[in-house]
Every structure is written in C-alpha cells, then in structure tokens.
Design goal:
2 domains; about 325 residues; two-stranded antiparallel ribbon; 9 helices; single chain
C-alpha cells in the first residue's frame, strides 16, 4: 500500500521545531513518510557568502527532523536545502512528492508563540492544493486531546469532519462539532408592507417592524437548523467510535469559534477549505483565514478538491 507523504518545511525556529515534532508524531501514528525541506530566501540573503552560511544552517535544521524521525522509526523520504522563494519552493515540492499533507509552523522565526500567522504560512494556506496543518504549541504538546470541527453543512465541511474523526480516533481525542448562526446578519427585523397586507391601518410600501415574538421564532428556527447541521458531524463520529459534543452559538462566526477554542481548551481545529458559508471560504479576510491566523491552537485545513488525500481509516 502506498504510504502517506508528509511535507515538513522548517526554518530553524523554536516554532518550526515544534511543528516537526507534531509531524513526526502524526507520521508514526499513520505510518507516513516525511520529506523535510529548508529554503534559503534568495531575496533576503542576496550576498553569496551569507547565503552559503544560511544554507549550511538549513542542513542542520533538516537533519534535526531526520533525527527525530529516526527515533520514531519513521522513513525520511528526503531532506532538501533549496534556494529561492520559500513559498514557491514549498508549493513545488508538495506537488513533486504528491504530498498528502503539509505540516508547518503557523508562525516563523522571530515571532512569538501568540503572534498572528506568518506571511509564508498564510500564502501556503491560500495557494496550496493539498491539505495544510499549521502548528501552534498547546499544553498537550504533540497530543490532540480536544478537536473542534466547525461545520456549515457543505460537502467540504463533511470531508473535514471525516479527516477530523480519523485524527480523533487515533489520538483518543474528544470532538466538538460547532455551528455558528449570526442571527443579526440573517434576520431582517423590518419588512415592507405588500399589497396583500395593505389595509387595516397598514399602508402599501410602509416599513413595518416585526414583533419580538416573530423575531424570536425566526431566531429559534435558525438555531434548530444549525443543530441539525452539527448533528451530521456526530453521525460521522458515531461511525468512527468517537465521542462528539454539539455546540451551537449565535454571534459573529470568528469570535464565537475563538471563544470555544479558549473555553474548551481546544488543541486542534479542523476546517474545510471551501463551502457554502463564510466559515470555510478561503479568501482574504474570510472566517477561515481569521481563525487560522489568530487561533491559539493548531489548525488543519482540508481541501475538498483533494479529498482522495483524506487520511484513510486503517
């Protein structure tokens, strides 16, 4: 059987070493092979002598990954030190090895553990055709004990749920399936009187406010629909023998997801990369980008277009 391929870009930072540890742990669980790489940014290190020094340091960094993998008995497919644009080289290497998953630090050299997502990680997240896992250190280290799966009911969200359950099953993790409803955005509290409604004191074309009772019923309808969407994730969990709890919140999607992460001490968020709501559309300023950029835990973005790359149940 063909082994899964994990690509692990490193930059020598503490955050990068943490990501490498996560990658090795996951590879040992899934029986995957690892390819590690370092890219000396030719635009940043234009002086030849300095570039050579950086490349030698890169050799040490990829060798550190090799040693970590050997301890766990993981096959290292390749360790490469390249020059050029880190973004282009990482994307090219992922395609060349047909990577199932890119695992890298959410933040790079010179950034603290709570800093927003790094520029390279951000571009890889947007441009990669394969699944991307951005690592941040949590109290559980390389072990994922609590996994959050936001869902909007789309097919891509279902793929993300399948991937998340695969990880939860192997890490013996708890799962929280959440759906966020922004009722203020979806419910119009005013409406225009139609011709059929005119009369009895109402004027055609008049703006009329809905009663509190009607607004309350509309809000409850939205919450009930959201619960049904989240229940689809629990059905996947049940098939995999995983425990999943439903969380439905009313509010701004990004802020509510981040609140859940904090309140439940989430170690990993699993998101679909495209979908029918703002949760999973990977565009500038999207919920997905905001969550991936600011969450204080690791984030896995699953590409629906590469669903054949979803980690299989072994």
């Amino acid at each position: 059987m063909t082994k899964l391929q994990f690509l692990v870009p490193v930059d020598g930072s503490e955050n990068s070493r943490t990501a490498a540890k996560h990658a090795v742990q996951m590879a040992s669980i899934y029986g995957a092979e690892i390819s590690s790489m370092f890219v000396a940014d030719i635009h940043k290190y234009a002086v030849p002598d300095i570039l050579e020094i950086v490349k030698k340091a890169g050799e040490e960094y990829v060798d550190q990954v090799r040693k970590l993998a050997e301890i766990k008995g993981i096959t290292i497919r390749s360790t490469k030190v390249l020059t050029g644009s880190p973004i282009e080289q990482i994307l090219n290497e992922a395609e060349a090895i047909d990577a199932n998953l890119i695992i890298m630090a959410a933040i790079g050299r010179g950034q603290g553990k709570t800093a927003p997502i790094g520029a390279i990680a951000n571009r890889i997240l947007r441009l990669s055709n394969t699944h991307v896992m951005l690592i941040r250190d949590t109290d559980c280290k390389e072990q994922y004990k609590k996994i959050l799966i936001p869902t909007d009911g789309s097919k891509d969200a279902e793929y993300a749920a399948q991937y998340g359950m695969s990880i939860a099953r192997r890490y013996n993790a708890e799962v929280y399936a959440c759906t966020i409803v922004d009722s203020k955005d979806k419910i119009l509290e005013m409406h225009i009187t139609s011709l059929d409604e005119a009369g009895g004191g109402r004027v055609f074309g008049e703006t009329v406010a809905y009663s509190e009772a009607i607004i309350k019923r509309m809000k409850q309808h939205l919450l009930d629909d959201a619960s049904r969407i989240a229940e689809n994730v629990t059905k996947i969990a049940n098939k995999k023998g995983v425990t999943a709890e439903i969380i439905v919140k009313d509010g701004k999607t990004t802020s509510e997801i981040l609140k859940i992460v904090k309140n439940q001490n989430i170690d990993l968020i699993v998101l679909g990369s495209t979908g029918k709501s703002s949760i999973s559309k990977m565009v500038v300023g999207s919920v997905l980008e905001k969550v991936a950029s600011t969450a204080k835990c690791s984030v896995l973005v699953v590409r629906g277009s590469r669903i054949e790359r979803v980690v299989p149940e072994l």
